[in-house]
Design goal:
It is built from six helices and six strands, in the order αββαααββαββα. By secondary structure, the chain is of the alpha+beta class. The N and C termini lie far apart (54 Å).
Length: 180
């Protein structure tokens, strides 16, 4: 039986997609990673299910990575949060390869259960190198989702204009018309 991904925002870079396994729905905190079934959904959504198994150890390590990344996104540059992500990165490494197609890189793990969490932490490094100011949390006060702003001007504010953006606009309109 295939479980569908219930999250309101998917398709973000894997580090932010891991953070987005928690979301608010009708004022109630939701969490995709409460068990291995949800982990299997997240692994599949990110193309990681071909390399990693959705078992208890992988879930435990992926949750550790999510908590470390959440702390760092909430407090960029904070030493303890930085150290937590660095500890996750310590569970893997990149091995340079040469194949008939040319040079490449292959991640390696002493314990493959760290693979998904390490992959998310490594992706976060790539986002920091690319454009750290475009790593954003949704501007809606009730939303806890994150995104990488790929808009031309770098002015995206909402995880989704259709959801949070419209709610904010409707709230402002209601406040203006209520006073009249």
């Amino acid at each position: 039986m295939t479980v569908t991904d219930p999250r309101p925002l998917t398709g973000e870079p894997v580090s932010l997609d891991l953070l987005n396994t928690r979301w608010n729905e009708d004022g109630v905190r939701q969490d995709l990673l409460t068990g291995t079934e949800g982990l299997a959904v997240w692994l599949a959504a990110n193309g990681l299910d071909r390399r990693f198994t959705a078992d208890a150890a992988t879930l435990r390590h992926t949750l550790a990575a999510r908590d470390a990344l959440a702390a760092l996104v909430d407090r960029p540059g904070e030493p303890a949060a930085t150290a937590r992500v660095d500890a996750i990165l310590g569970h893997g490494r990149i091995r340079a390869t040469l194949t008939t197609e040319g040079p490449g890189e292959e991640p390696e793990f002493a314990d493959p259960a760290w693979g998904p969490g390490w992959t998310a932490a490594r992706d976060y490094l790539d986002l920091l190198r690319a454009n750290p100011e475009r790593i954003r949390g949704c501007a809606h006060e009730a939303c806890i989702l994150h995104f990488f702003d790929t808009s031309r001007n770098g002015t995206r504010r909402w995880c989704s204009m259709a959801a949070c953006g419209n709610r904010a606009k409707a709230s402002r309109h209601y406040a203006r018309t209520k006073d009249n």
